[in-house]
Amino acid sequence: MLFWVIAAVLTLGASLAVLLPLTRRAEGEADASHDLEVYRDQLGEVDRDAARGLIAPSDAELARAEIARRIIKLDAESARQSKKTSQLAPRQVGVLAVLAVPLLSWGIYAAIGSPSVPSQPLSARLSQKPADSSVDELIARAEAHLVANPSDGRGWDVLAPVYLRIGRANDAVTAYRNAIRILGSTTARQAGLGEAIAGSAGGIVTSDARVAFEAALKLEPADPKARYFLALAFAQEGKIADAATAWRLLAESLPVDSPWRAATDQAIAQAEARAAPSKETAGAPAPSQDDIDAAASMSSGDRTAMIEGMVATLDEKLRQNPRDPEGWLRLVRSYQVLGKTDLAQAALGRAYAALGRDSEDGRKLTELAGSLGLKVTE
């Protein structure tokens, strides 16, 4: 009801703003008629004063001439006003048009609109049936519920993957952690937490993300999400061959209709394309089936030790042959992913010295350093 009152007041104000100028002409006509009566009274007064001898005949004549001049001037203005008066019909049309706009618009809305539908503030929309709500309204409803009931683990568990799907990775991390804290660990929660942490880090599988994925594999060793992202961690560390091996093992275990098959096949193809030049540079042979089986069965600590050994080997080879841009990129990235920021920073400086900061390879190093959060100093 308040809306209609405000709308009526605004409509009335707009109409008056247009109508008032149309009424000022009529006021001018009334002023002219009043002035004419005043001049006539002045003429009569001059005649009476002259008859009683109060003023000289010559002065009376001058007064009459002045009043006559004013009457003539007023008559000319009255003639102009009469011409404007002949335009009364257009003015009336204008007045009718101004009044017709709100009347017609309100009448049409009353006929085809929905004036009887009540307003729906956010609280009212959130209380309606879920099937009638949008995704944003459902999320807002869930968030309002969790603000009032922060210990509702089921609510956090439902909201976490929704956050992840719409790109709110930081909120997904919080939701997954709350669900795990209240309801306990499951494979889906731990794997989802790892994916959310990686998403909040710009796609980098950080140490916290790896902990979550490894926790998921302890609960379900065949979980495809955890296995995929741990293989991605190998690739980000610069160990492309190990990443390709892990993805191949995952692909062999996936059913044909698995949603992870397409992503895994694409990752294998990219890893093989990248592994070929790196093998040539490192002089390492392709892994045998025994190597593949051994890598797959390693514990997390053994795998980390193996990766650190490979990074150290790469570091030594770059000391002997520093003209290897791809090698420097892998080394800097590997040290940073392993959490050895000091070594990554030192490797970046050595790479600049070997390749040149202003070269094309140097610019690639600068871009990589920026994405990893390393300092780029002159």
Automatic annotation (TrEMBL):
Chain coiled-coil ranges: none
Segments for region (Disordered): 267-299
Residues in Cytochrome c-type biogenesis protein H TPR domain copies: 143-259
Sorted UniProt keywords: Cytochrome c-type biogenesis, Repeat, TPR repeat
Low complexity compositional bias, start-end: 267-276
Entry-linked Pfam families: TPR_CcmH_CycH
UniProt keyword annotation of Repeat present: yes
Domain of life: Bacteria
Subcellular location: Cell envelope
Entry protein name: C-type cytochrome biogenesis protein CcmI
Gene of this entry: ccmI
